[in-house]
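Internal QA ticket QA-208
Title: Verify multi-chain structure generation after dependency bump
Assignee: T.L.

Test input:
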Amino acid sequence: MVLIYKGPIDVDSLLSRWYGAEHNRNYGAMVTFVGTVREENGIEALSFDIYRPLLEKWFEEWKRKLEKEGALLAMAHSEGDVPVHTSSFACAIFSPKRRVALKMLEAFVEDFKANAPIWKYDVVEGKRIYAAERSTPMAGSGLLAKGK
Amino acid sequence: MVKVEFLGPIGKSPIEVDASTLAELAEILKKDAEVAKWLENSAVAVNDTLVESLEMKLNSGDRVSLLPPVCGG
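Actual output:
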């Protein structure tokens, strides 16, 4: 299950929780990625909408993919406003040896960017502005524009 | 009736329409100026499963979701 935070992720407690839950299960590697909101273009925060039912399906598929390689996946994401210099996304992959975790982390994060049903907004002067130019159409987009 | 929901930045309340296939639904949505501009780059889910064919049959009570371009993280 994806952990959803209202607002920023408490990174310290999350990473120590993940480590604490798995370090004695004989995984030789824990690889983490934490995404932190940068100060740029005068934004105060980023803000996120999530469509949970499809996010959960997408995540479970990735979990199964990693299980086949003997690896374990954990993920957290924020909903709502996340101020600059706080974090909105975290994931961890545990694997018996380092190579699987290092390789799969990149593949997972790239697919996350392209296909996880999450929408991003810049927050400027308290207003949410959809980050259209940084967003990617999901696989299969445009179906309803076809036809007659 | 089929329920259509518009996710994320589309920012429109759900509507109920009469459509027996996705192709029929597409024709209805193309006439809605507020929605039409999103069709080109939105993915489509029926009852929370992403779909790829306009021929797909819709049954009364189905829920269709439009998912515009995403950007997590």
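Spot checks passed. The first helix of chain A runs from residue 11 to 22.
Status: verified.
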